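Thread: quick sanity check before group meeting

JM: Hey all, I'm pulling together slides for Thursday and realized we never actually wrote out the predicted structure for the chain we discussed last week. Dropping the sequence here so it's in one place. If anyone has concerns about the input, flag it before I start.
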Amino acid sequence: MPTKTLNKVHTKLGTTPAPPSLDISYTMGPITGPDKVIGLGQSYAFGFNITANTNRDSVYAVSAIALVNGRGQWTAQILDPPVVPIPAHKSATVLVQVTATTIGDTIQPSRCEVVLSAVEISPVTHVIPGQARLMLMALYPPPTPDPRVHVVLGDTGAQDNRFGSGLQVGLREIEFKVFVTEPGDYTVTAELRDPTGWTIGSILGSPFHIAAGDTAGKSVFVPLKHAVTARQTDLFLTVAGGPGISAKFALPIMP
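JM (edit): ok, ran it. Output follows.
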């Protein structure tokens, strides 16, 4: 009995606030080609959410590296500014572009662990640094934040114009194939990381319905126009609906 009483008192008196810290989570998957795998020389954008668990606004330095396991060479670079201000108890999204410059072979494909780190550089809150790790394998599909949803380029999605640094957008709309394992009604919305010089038209094929047991991809067409002021950016697609699904994907594009 005395032991139980002491434990209860200790629990009440021992509640101290958690130290300020950063949480980093993988929140945005890449859009691959129709083959659904990470290919040689292609760039893929992965999105991470950085949440500041602190009572003060602060500024953080963000970096990314590619740790290669086995044969092959990979690169990882931040697409956003490397210094990110985040208000107290708010979040910021950071994109990391990953490229497999060599991928080994089908017998021994190259693996890469992408490491994203964030460290406070304004010395007032003493926030504990944050880190996230994501394992990738060449010639295999990349992981998605929500495994129930995948988005790939369609057969008419200008795949022939996809270069190492992104998809070169032509004069026609881009076709995407959306795969969802949960039945329900879904919508697809589009936005751009930097919309300067770009215009997104009305999306065709959205909304759509997924029946139980339907494994076929739904075709969605996104019209994109660009002016002479357009520059390389990233297209974001959000698939929402069904049983609480809201999944976001990214594709590097260029005029």
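AS: nice. Helices lie at 2-13. The mean pLDDT is 85.
JM: adding both to the slides.
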